Amino acid sequence: xxxxxxxxxxxxxxxxxxxxxxxxxxxxxxxxxxxxxxxxxxxxxxxxxxxxxxxxxxxxxxxxxxxxxxxxxxxxxxxxxxxxxxxxxxxxxxxxxxxxxxxxxxxxxxxxxxxxxxxxxxxxxxxxxxxxxxxxxxxxxxxxxxxxxxxxxxxxxxxxxxxxxxxxxxxxxxxxxxxxxxxxxxxxxxxxxxxxxxxxxxxxxxxxxxxxxxxxxxxxxxxxxxxxxxxxxxxxxxxxxxxxxxxxxxxxxxxxxxxxxxxxxxxxxxxxxxxxxxxxxxxxxxxxxxxxxxxxxxxxxxxxxxxxxxxxxxxxxxxxxxxxxxxxxxxxxxxxxxxxxxxxxxxxxxxxxxxxxxxxxxxxxxxxxxxxxxxxxxxx
Length: 380
Prior knowledge:
Elements: H1 12-28, H2 40-50, H3 55-68, H4 72-77, H5 80-87, H6 94-110, H7 118-122, H8 129-140, H9 149-158, H10 168-181, H11 187-200, H12 219-223, E1 240-250, E2 253-258, E3 269-270, E4 273-275, H13 282-294, E5 297-310, E6 315-327, E7 337-342, H14 353-378
Parallel strand pairs: 1-6
Antiparallel strand pairs: 1-2, 1-4, 2-3, 2-7, 5-6
Helix pairs in contact: 1-11, 2-3, 2-8, 8-11, 9-11
């Protein structure tokens, strides 16, 4: 354990806050599948999935993932492509790649034994300070504060904290104040109680203050402005990009490309294309991207779909065209792999959400069109 211990001189108010929170948690704790077991592996999987993803979304993915990879050994032995397919639709795919790599390291370097210190957990790919603290407190009972977004919101309102907790200095100060509340031997319950309180009552908008067990201690409630906390710096506008993708068909199959393993959406499959550069038309962009990525020259045909999607750091509009190869054979020049796949078998591959929508369109409307085109060409 890497914490120096509970600070001395804890006040009666601080003790009362922790006691009120834990009493509330005993009665109102959420019944979540990862709370039904103390297995570090299951808790780790849940914490990875819960990063930037709502609980309701995670639950079915979590249950399917553990059914497919019930142990650390199973996850480490599985091909990355299989792990990405199990993750498909959950988003933030770097989490799946890091999880798989960490599982392999744990098996190869530690014989399947899980770390017991913050420093050891932090050395694993994809594990940040919150996740390491959450696993150690919940799975191993160590007295460590773990602050997720919900817990930060509760504490910022409780103390009417006047700094931005997303900044390092603000985060450290809030962490120190939380440590003064931490009851010895009950860190797992304390951390999860803060999470549940933030998720159910102390919500970002319209918090249910009259039902809150900490209302009597809450400085923001006393001031009458709980929604003013946590303090946030102005949100910057997300950049927008136009992106193209080509649906290329031959003999009843479509061409898909695998993104490089490193980088955004690494290891996922997509309909090839890329970002429009300044001064380019959509058609020119798609021709250039397929030349650079696959080594082929194409004729850009009819537009099929226009899809919009927002990531955490940007917004895109994806313009999807039907294309025909004029010359060249597709090769993985700017991607990890290329394959010709029948439409009926596309569900074997893991795609980003936008490309999943192209697959859905092909199944519903495009497959008959592609079949007609193939039949027409075979008669000439």
